[in-house]
């Protein structure tokens, strides 16, 4: 790791160099002081030449202070780590340093244990630099399924494996219950890759990519050979790692392929495999190249006629019982999601036709509701509960097991809780435990009362709060606002803000300043 030291005291530079040398020997890594600079202006001139992996800088220097140096670096390099080393434990200095994404603030004389901990984190960050570049290339391929010749020339030097396999771990919102919209840090990412890569060969490589839906993880393995026994060990490790509370996820596995540019075409195919073949409550490894088994629908003409008779009588309890019976048949037959999805839509269609004839037509977004129900149900019994609750609320059934007034009041309490804890990690499991409610019913409440999924609802509330803070407290930095609305990573906050508001935080501030 190449280090730049910036300080106007030669004695401190020499002392700091000795400590760096001691740590290099202790950690058995190469820590190279690539440049010694006596003021900030000199440091700025030499960064491009020396290409340091980290800059350690004093605060109070002639010509250009350490804070001004950090500000100047951020104008041309958002990633270069800057560490402030100061004899002044001033909160004002710390606050200024935070504004420009300084990674740490060390006090003179530098504590060796604190320096060691920081160096270890910086080494991890440096090691991950090439990994992040490769992962960025893979993300670009996912965004452009039909890669061009220009993409070919950019990607091929980074990926030189003869074979690759892609694994899609889906529905991690159910399995893992990570707090929503909080990106994993480098250490967690490294642990995951180390754990799974241990089941591959020494010369193989693994990339881990969280996908945009917030529920899926793509694993891409670069392989020297396609060893089936090694693949089996890797599968067991993936299932073990992503299992929670005894529940494992379903995973889609691609065939071995030789051209990494095919990744953008394979991932949609893996999504389709998982969407169509997954059986609720039965985690599976689904091979995209394996033939599909014949599908046998369970909601037959007999059940349709029975449902129509129950509708004529207005027997809502009987309809709920019929739906439970149908769901039990799906479970007995091991019906995959493609069949369950189609048959739920068929049931909904019959109910809507009846409503149109008796009460008039109401426009509803059934596709989103049904899909969320399927993705959130951990068992067929839970699917039955969620489906009946959704239909009862939508068609205003009178069922002893459901009280719509109670559910409205419950959702109001949930909204107040989220608003009060908007700056903290929030998860479905947290709300389930707090309000003693099942996951399918909870997700149904969000969809029915807000028209949004849980993640969409929380994101929208966080973005509204961020916009209010920008308007009423224009001097607050984006980093401070991000932390106040629950985002530890400012860059991630900015991406989410741009995706929801249609403009960056800076553009939003500028536009509001012009109009106000």
Automatic annotation (TrEMBL):
Residues covered by the HTH araC/xylS-type domain: 412-511
Gene3D superfamilies per record: 3.40.50.2300, Homeodomain-like
InterPro entries, alphabetized: CheY-like_superfamily, Homeodomain-like_sf, HTH_AraC, Sig_transdc_resp-reg_receiver, Tscrpt_reg_AraC-type_HTH
Domain Response regulatory per the UniProt entry, residue ranges: 2-123
SUPFAM superfamilies found in the cross-reference section: CheY-like, Homeodomain-like
Modification 4-aspartylphosphate, positions: 58
Entry keyword set: DNA-binding, Phosphoprotein, Transcription, Transcription regulation
PROSITE patterns xref list: HTH_ARAC_FAMILY_2, RESPONSE_REGULATORY
GO biological process: phosphorelay signal transduction system
GO molecular function: DNA-binding transcription factor activity; sequence-specific DNA binding
PANTHER family xrefs: ARAC-FAMILY TRANSCRIPTIONAL REGULATOR, HTH-TYPE TRANSCRIPTIONAL REGULATOR EXSA
Name the record gives this protein: Response regulator
Record organism: Cohnella rhizosphaerae
